[in-house]
Amino acid sequence: MSHDYPHLLQPLDLGFTQVKNRVLMGSMHTGLEEERDGFPKLAAFYEERAKGGVGLIVTGGIAPNFRGRVAPFGSELSKPWHVKKHKLITEAVHRHGTKICMQILHTGRYAYHPFNVAPSKIKAPINPFTPSAMSDRQIRTTIAHFARAAKLAQQAGYDGVEVMGSEGYLINQFLCPRTNKRSDKWGGSFQNRSRFALEIINAIRAAVGSDFIIIYRLSMLDLVPDGNQFDEVIELGKAVEAAGVNIINSGIGWHEARVPTIVTSVPRGAFTWITARVKASLSIPIVAVNRINTPEIAESILAKGEADMVSMARPLLADPAFVNKAAQGAGHTINTCIACNQACLDHVFENKRASCLVNPQACYETELQFHPASTKKKLAVVGAGPAGLAFSCYAAERGHEVHLFDSASEIGGQFNYAKQIPGKEEFHETIRYFDQRLKELGVNLHLNSRQSADSLAAGQYDDVVLATGVVPRDVELTGANPDQVVGYLDVLKEHKKLGKRVAIIGAGGIGFDVAEYLTTEESPTLDVKAWSEIWGVDHNYSDRGGLTKPVQEHSPRQIYLLQRKTSKVGAGLGKTSGWVHRATLAKKGVSMLAGCSYKAVTEKGLLIERDGEVTELEVDHIVICAGQIPQRELQQQLIDAGQSVHLIGGADVAAELDAKRAIRQGAELAAQI
């Protein structure tokens, strides 16, 4: 047992029961809840995390009734026959001494269907469906439904429930003047607005008895106008404690908030200050949340007394063995969550099954497995970017002899450019993890080693895997002066110095990254105070919702971000993170122009045409970020030589820089080769 993290690994005594450590796996919807035969897969998913040492798991949100469902076919626990499938989960988790609570979630006006309800008839800005205002009778019925769901959860073997009172869902909608305009006893004064939350807790406690964990997710910082004020948060916290709640979990921000709370550019532990302040007024255990992704930061939060537990959801998607690795003093071997959201939240919001960019086995535990290979092969992998690294590690894990080649002097491929972008510092962690894995698994790594068909033939490999990635696509510009026009690799790899005015051609992920790189002098991601000021998060909590006027950011350059398509600039970025990238650049005065055709490079800059009008942009440099093409010239030569060849990652399909697909493709090939 490691002595590195004494606070993290200390048991938590709740009186009638104990949690074996201070790690709570936060609630996360996976999409398996709704899939046909999804519950056995969900049980395997949670069991893997229990096996990995987590103390307490909270499931994804389960609705207490039909109107509360996330979507028309969303998961619900309201009938006795629903209990059986939940038992699969609780039995799997309990085999490993881990506790599990089911989250009861009523989405209120966030429900993505026409039967949604709310305290008042006010449509959410992120939902096309307008809710109907709840009648007094509907409110009382809903309170009874929460209690019924908790009782059924108890019958299913759960150790407790988490009542979802934050993130802008129904209970939170009752609490805030923003969404509660009622004049009856459920609206008006704070006492009236908080009645719904407290009656739910009282009803649940009456239904389940005293030896059952109730966690209440308290919205500590709404981050929306007309949210709660600090004294109301404390008043509710005290009332919730008095009502018999065992643990208070932090809720930060509403889904409609225009402040990012979990994307990769949010500093680690950015919101522990508010949890610490709330904790000072309460006596039951309090949980810190959001962007806690290493055992070091978790330990430091607990050691400083800012919280009694730490919640991690995505970090346990990335590495189910997180807690065991920390306990064994092997924290450096953890596959760290980079908070990219690309395979988890983006998938869930698109009604797809969640997974994880850095761990494609997440939510595919029963389908993507790496059994020892029946025939051990000698394999060559060309390219040590995400696809090549993933394939090499999984293939070596199965017992193959793997030789990994790259012409560069370091592993990581395109991740080496991504990690330099302000707000993407987490990408360093994935390269560190793969470096560690290659050593552990005995992969033969050959850097500074450019391969040809002849050199590969000489190695007598059973199979060759080409993970050679992509090369930037050229754009033909008339009148181009080579000093004026550069590629994104000139900027991110060669660190070419650019002038004060720059046009970027191409507004996909790379165009946005280059714009971020060129407009930022110091990354606020590494400084909670600076980041909070930029986004208008008020640590003094002077106004409702904890918002203040954002500090104006200074950009060292004037940037034009241009695209040919007429759609909104950045429309193709991630569903849950794209708006953050757009807002960040807008704050720095970047001009984002769609529907551009590029006429010519002039002495003054770039001639473009938009809506039939020709404009000359006065710029010092033009950066080409207009996509990539696969780099696969070795493929045909190898096939001609009779070699068995596989293409993965960008070498296979060069659609934006897609590490999620590259890593999954590498893993899937390794599982079957």
From TrEMBL:
UniProt GO molecular function: 2,4-dienoyl-CoA reductase (NADPH) activity; FMN binding; iron-sulfur cluster binding; metal ion binding
Span of domain FAD/NAD(P)-binding: 378-637
Database matches in InterPro entries: Aldolase_TIM (IPR013785), FAD/NAD-bd_sf (IPR036188), FAD/NAD-binding_dom (IPR023753), NADH:flavin_oxidoreductase (IPR051793), OxRdtase_FMN_N (IPR001155)
Record EC number: 1.3.1.34
CDD domains for this protein: DCR_FMN
GO terms under biological process: fatty acid beta-oxidation, unsaturated, even number, reductase/isomerase pathway
Cofactor(s) listed: FMN; [4Fe-4S] cluster
Location of the NADH:flavin oxidoreductase/NADH oxidase N-terminal domain: 8-329
Keywords: Flavoprotein, FMN, Iron, Iron-sulfur, Metal-binding, Oxidoreductase
Class of enzymatic activity (EC top level): oxidoreductase
UniProt similarity note: In the N-terminal section; belongs to the NADH:flavin oxidoreductase/NADH oxidase family.
Entry protein name: NADPH-dependent 2,4-dienoyl-CoA reductase
UniProt gene name: fadH
